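Form 12-C: Joint structure prediction
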Amino acid sequence: MLKLATDQNAEQKRSTARRIEQALMEEIAVGELIPGQRLDEVGLAERFGASRTPVREALSRLTAQGVLVSGEKRGVFVAKYTREELSQIFEAMHEIEAACARIAATRLNLLTRSEIETAQSACMTAAESGDRTAYLRANEAFHMAIYNATGNPYMAEIALEFRRRTGPFRAKKFADKEDLIASAQNHQELIDDIFSEDSATASKSMRDHMTLSFMQALKAN
Amino acid sequence: MLKLATDQNAEQKRSTARRIEQALMEEIAVGELIPGQRLDEVGLAERFGASRTPVREALSRLTAQGVLVSGEKRGVFVAKYTREELSQIFEAMHEIEAACARIAATRLNLLTRSEIETAQSACMTAAESGDRTAYLRANEAFHMAIYNATGNPYMAEIALEFRRRTGPFRAKKFADKEDLIASAQNHQELIDDIFSEDSATASKSMRDHMTLSFMQALKAN
DNA sequence: GATTACTATTTTGTATACAATTTAAAAAGT
DNA sequence: ACTTTTTAAATTGTATACAAAATAGTAATC
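Section 2 - Result
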């Protein structure tokens, strides 16, 4: 199971409700749970060997974050978006990511630089070996590194939130090795612009990166 | 009780848990519940004439949104920020609001224009009569109108989320009539720039507005 | 045969109960 | 007087139970 960079491995400590929340979040991010799919409370309860109460809490929190939606019918569902909605979400994500790049460009230091570079070389390695899962993980780490470089956890939080919401849709677009390599090369240009420490350039470059990413995602969905 | 523009008046329909959630959100936004204050589950339960279960759900959702935090000690608390954290939150809010203004400037239509203008005249009226509560409400409506003008509900959602989180801190800064009038006049300049339909200008103007807002908030907290 | 009405079953929301922690308080010892 | 230990109280997390609502399925009527 893919492990996002967010959850520190203090996994055994949390409450059942939190564990279920995290587990579902990951499954959605990775695409095991597909958009539009219904999540059954009792089903999840017995699957996780718990009662409905913690399941309910997990679902409630996830809907509050917009990862799940409690539609017109009963039950909660993995958020599913029309192309129009997807376009809006990506527009918003655009803006957030661009803002992150802009801020990061002005606050770079040795540590954050190296973290971004490390993540990027992991992306390159994964891309060249054509390992899709590894690339997805490395890609997450790369963007996380940029978020961290902003030095602003709140900015990072919303960026991450959008990343989670769009996870299932972005995942699809990496069909073959060429897609991975193209994405990784795109990263490289972005890095150069962020490292130039010119916020306007960094912002524009991220914008371009995200536009490309969106176009591909839209094609694949 | 102040009624934010978000909750349509279908108030009797929702579940107890949602009503509690909304009620607490409003109380926090208005400043009845002050940052750092502890929210007692059983206390809230009997206050709302319900059991702990729906209260728990409400609190859980609010912490998922970052309005409440479940600190080191037990219990959940109204989010309280250091000046450093506050600065970061406002920085993020800056970026979001600026992005909203930028998008809104490119998508204005007759309806959204008039909604913004209506909200602004309500602000002016409230400011001139020195009605603080009315101004707070009108101010919310004004910013909501801009969010709506983006035509992007997801953008609007995160903007609103930040607005809720910073509510208690922004509320404090409106001490006397002069503050209200200054804020309303500031709105007017912002409107002019958004209505110029030049996204760069609109974005910069919003940035200035938010910077001013932040400086005042920081002084008051 | 299609539509309406009714019944049954699932599902949700809330309440209550209980066990496991954690904080606070009291008591004992140094 | 100040720790340390023990005990008590409060609080959290989870389980179970139940009532209300919603969907689906079946029967009945036109």
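Section 3 - Comments
Chain A touches chain B through 28 residues (CB under 8 Å). Chain A has a mean pLDDT of 81.
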